[in-house]
Amino acid sequence: MSDVTVVLDDAHVATVEIHRPPANYFDAALIAQLADAYERLDADLECRAIVLCSEGRHFCAGANLGSPESPADEPRTLYRQALRLFAAATPVVAAVQGAAVGGGLGLALSADFRVASPASRFSANFAQLGFHQGFALSVTLPALAGQQPALDLLLTGRRVPGKEAHELGICDRLVGDDEVRAGARALAAELAQSAPLALRSIRATLRAGLVDRVEQALEREASEQDRLRETDDFREGVAASLERRAPRFQGR
């Protein structure tokens, strides 16, 4: 059974929903399902905008780094699929309820827009795990928040609540805690009222070169993740996260 469902409504808005609650951890298979859905919707003349959302408490907690089932080539396998998301032609609005953490933040930032609430939380927590950022956050986070705020968020891994995320430009609209999905759909419906050919043309112009930059970043990110995955600090970071304690990093 697929962990991704697609529903296209009469306002030309498709809802693409992830079903892995409560944390909605992803793997290469899930990202491939999302990319397949985007590509099918790109070819559907009735679809003019996409809402990306998730079932349950949190938008997405990224990859489950504590899982022993994660294969050694997972970053590269995953990122080949992630690149397809950035290459899609249809505008995407992410509905970010709860937490968008690690690669989950990367998934949220792959969308064109994000709608969140004051209770939403955004975190690039990689350094706190002894790891390198991924899912093209090296490109998307500085582009949205600026170089210095991105450096702050990546080096500290701190949690950013919805209000600050809105101020930083990480999320585009802030709504009530129970209105995130409705707010995302309202924005997508607003996009879908524009002329569809012009919509895609304007978007393509503004995103020119993005896929190439993302591809280069993903290669660098995967290489560094492969290297750091073998360190004691990474093992300690993951263990500390699972045990809900402060990590004791040794620099090796």
Write a concise synopsis of the structure shown.
The chain has 252 residues and is α/β, with parallel strands linked by helices.
Corresponding CATH architecture: Alpha-Beta Complex
CATH H-level superfamily: 2-enoyl-CoA Hydratase, Chain A, domain 1
Summed over residues and divided by their number, the pLDDT gives a mean of 95
Q: Indicate the structural class.
A: alpha/beta
Largest sheet entry: 6 strands, mixed
CATH names the topology as 2-enoyl-CoA Hydratase, Chain A, domain 1
Domain count, please report it. 1
According to CATH, what is the class? Alpha Beta
Shape: globular
Strand content: 5-15%
- What share of the residues lie within helices? 40-55%
Number of helices: 10
Structure description:
The chain is α/β, with parallel strands linked by helices. The chain has a single domain, classed as 2-enoyl-CoA Hydratase, Chain A, domain 1. Helices cover 47% and strands 14% of the residues. The protein contains 10 helices and 9 strands. The protein has helices spanning 28-42, 74-87, 103-110, 137-145, 147-156, 162-168, 180-192, 196-206, 210-228, 232-243; strands spanning 4-8, 13-18, 49-54, 92-96, 99-101, 113-116, 121-123, 160-161, 173-174. A hairpin with a 4-residue loop joins strand 1 (4-8) and strand 2. Helix 1 (28-42) packs parallel to helix 2 and helix 4 crosses helix 9 (210-228). The longest helix has 19 residues, at 210-228. The radius of gyration is 17 Å and the shape is globular. The N and C termini lie far apart (42 Å). 44% of the residues are buried.
